[in-house]
Amino acid sequence: MPPRSIRLVNIVSSQTSPHGFALSFNEYPLDSLPPFWALSYTWGSPDFPTSDADAVDWDSSHRVDCGTGFLEIGQNLLAFLGQTNLTMSQPPAATPREPRQILPERPFNFWIDAVCINQADPAERTQQVRHMGRIYQSARRVVAWLGPAEPSADATWVVREFAPRVLALAGGQRHDDVSRREAVRIFAGAGPGLQQHAGAAALLGENVCRRWRERRVAFFAFFARKRWLTRGWVVQEAALPRPGRVVLQCGGVRLSWAAVNDFASFVYSAGWDAQLDAELAAAVPAWRARPGTLERLWNPVAAALPEYDGRGGVGERVAVWQRRRWGAVTDCEVRHAEVLHNLHRLRAYEFENPLDRIYGALGLCERILGDRYAVGVAPRYDVSVEAAFTGVAAWLLGFLPNLDMLGLAGLAEGRMEGLPSWVPDYSLRGPRGYTSLQRVRQLFKDGRSFHPLDATRAGDGGRQGRFARTDGETRLVLEGVCVDTVGKLHRLEHDERGVLANVSWVVDFCNREGRYAVNETFAAAVVTTLSANIKPRAIPKHEYRESIEQWARDCVAYNCAAHRGVPALDVADRLDFCEAGSAKGRSLFMSSDDVSQAVSLDGFAEKMADDPITKVVHFVTPGRKALETRRGLVGLGPAGARCGDEVWLVNGGRMPLLLRRLETVDKAAVYVLVGEVYLHGIMHGEMMTDELRAGFRPVVMV
To answer: What InterPro entries is this protein classified in (predicted)?
Structure first.
């Protein structure tokens, strides 16, 4: 096949075929394509397995006549082709229950990856992957095939009737002098259940509100079972086409993907997401098993792409967001930061071939970078996954405003072996908090606005040249200085209420004499570290300092009561030991009497679990360890940290890095990146002096 051409397939009715149809193919240049539809689907079962036995063997293959021979296709594709052949063969009046798809008369062209690409030819696969973005943007329609099972009447009602009605009110149409802003305020106040709320009933009618309450679980449960939402290639297949061109097809039923996207976006704008997510996790096992389903229904990638299409640069909204998220300022930095963000987002999706975690986003990369910047990676299925991931990291480091990308790398459990430590593993999902601390601070919705962490003041005065260079295929060379070493490490565990459980080290740290390095109490330093300096909006600013110190005492008291007698968690013994060994007249962080007084209060345990600071700490700390340095600082580091690891400040790195020195034959200093670290008291450039910067020297990471 010529390099800039693709195959399109026709579904031909055939009385002699056992399936009722045959396939015919034609090749067309990309620059002169006829009208066609593209298919987006899953190669195996369309649904995640349930306890109910599935009579269909979704792993089976079938021979389909294609004129010059036969093709082997999977069961799910066979179901789509059979359904489409049936629809095209019937007159519109034969399907009164469903509006017929507007299909031209046969022959009509489709693009389907499994049959339009020779999957046995690596060279052709490589060539065609380059065209995927162009194909889905050129398609007159993209059919997202969710399988032959039709949605329930409840799910269909939500998409076709309830969602459009809500969106009409929340999207600008007035209703009895109720503005869009007022409608959103009413829906936000009513909550996702629209329970006994006069304002919502006035807008929608009580019958509609009741019907939504009864049917919303069925709507979300239907999508939670669909593998299509978790398939990695789907992200660009559903994001690149023009709005309205993607249609969901379930058997003979067709639903608007745009309506689903817009309704999920409304759920976020009305503030329903957290409560709804919790309710669905409790009611729907499939929802609980696949976190992030609501965001997938929103399809944020598609929502952001139009911002990158303007000739005058990216949209202001996205530019502000990228400046906050990645410190990106210039058009070049903003666009490359968005590429990195999307590659990181794809960790939550499924790919059969790990290489496609890069190649499955090339269409998005081209759209984001526009005509000004070239995509710095080309699809090659004859290279190792490690080489492909390393190539992407080396490319992006040359265009990003700082080294925040390294916060996505490091020695995480389950990471791909053989991958350089400074290269993000785009196949590793990791724990909930497996992202950079900068991002974790932004993801917490109930925190006050804040300045990004910037321990080296990398954001001051703009970018001065490249911060990093590669040396050979696996080495990264930075410039920096070691400022401290890890002396102690503490696991961070939480009990069933979400309260920090192992706090004996907190007692020891808070009982130190004097004050912390930045002239605050040791208790304040500990809590600020555990929360990554996120300040909950629920606590007034003038009460925050007192609140965090009280939280430290309450956390110790809670653990004294909850875990007494459990050897690994018994903090009461530690408290007694500190009291017995303290110098006469010295004021302790807290005493046994303080514990008794705290736990005697009604509802103390429930109050501790509901405390805003408890929620912040529970959000920030999973997948991390608390650490103390040999200079007496307290920090938050990766779970893979060890005593003796070195804390480095590096040029261009807004976050301090935790490095581990390797022994080499030639005694040269070579390090692996363990991860980034929050070290309280230096996160806003307090340590950066001209003298320290003059001591920066090359450091090599492998």
So the answer is: HET, HetReg/Transcr_Mod
Count of residues in the chain: 702
Burial of 181 (0-12, 13-18, 19+ CB in 10 A): exposed
With a CB cutoff of 8 Å and minimum separation 6, the contacts of 540 are none
d(CA 28, CA 26): 7
- C-alpha 662/C-alpha 654 separation (Å) is 24
User: Is residue 237 a contact partner of residue 136, using CB atoms and an 8 Å limit?
Assistant: yes
Measured distance CA(679)–CA(656) in Å, rounded:
8
- Element of type H or E holding 180: helix 180-190
Provide the pLDDT confidence category of residue 701 given band limits of 50, 70 and 90. Answer: very high
Phi-psi region of 675 (alpha: psi -120 to 50; beta: other; left: phi over 0): left
CA distances from 361 to 42, 235, 383, 424, 597 (A): 17, 8, 17, 16, 58
CA geometry: angle 279, 283, 289, nearest 5 deg: 95
pLDDT digit string (tens) for 562-615? 866 555 555 666 666 666 655 555 567 888 888 889 989 999 999 999 999 999
Alpha-carbon distance values, 437 to 51, 534, 613, 632 (Å): 39, 11, 17, 22
Phi and psi at residue 481, to the nearest 5°: -150, 145
* DSSP-based three-state secondary structure for 120: coil
In degrees rounded to 5, what are phi and psi of residue 581? -95, 0
Q: Is the pTM of this model over 0.85?
A: yes
CA 526, CA 548: separation in Å to the nearest integer? 9
- For tokens 């995640």, name the residue: 48
Residue whose C-alpha is closest to residue 124's, from 112, 116, 136, 133: 116
- What's the pLDDT score for residue 431? 58
Pairing of strands 646-650, 657-662: antiparallel
Give how far Cα 436 sits from Cα of 19, 105, 280, 620, Å. 51, 53, 28, 10
Report yes or no: 504 and 574 within 8 Å, Cβ to Cβ: yes
Q: Which two tokens stand for residue 507?
A: 């007692």
* Amino acid at site 236: Q
Is the Cβ–Cβ distance between 512 and 523 less than 8 Å? no
Handedness of CA 44, 39, 1, 75 (dihedral sign): positive
**How large is the C-alpha radius of gyration of the chain?**
29
Q: What's the one-letter identity of residue 472?
A: G
Strands (DSSP E) contained in 88-164 are: 109-111, 141-145
Domain map (residue ranges) of the chain: 5-145, 153-298, 493-621
CB–CB of 63/72 below 8 Å? yes
- 673 DSSP β-pair partners: 659
pLDDT-derived band at 552 (thresholds 50, 70, 90) equals very high
* Cα–Cα distance for residue pair 302/311, rounded to 1 Å: 19
The C-alpha atoms of residue 472 and residue 100 are separated, in whole angstroms, by 58
Residue 671 bridge partners (DSSP): 661, 701
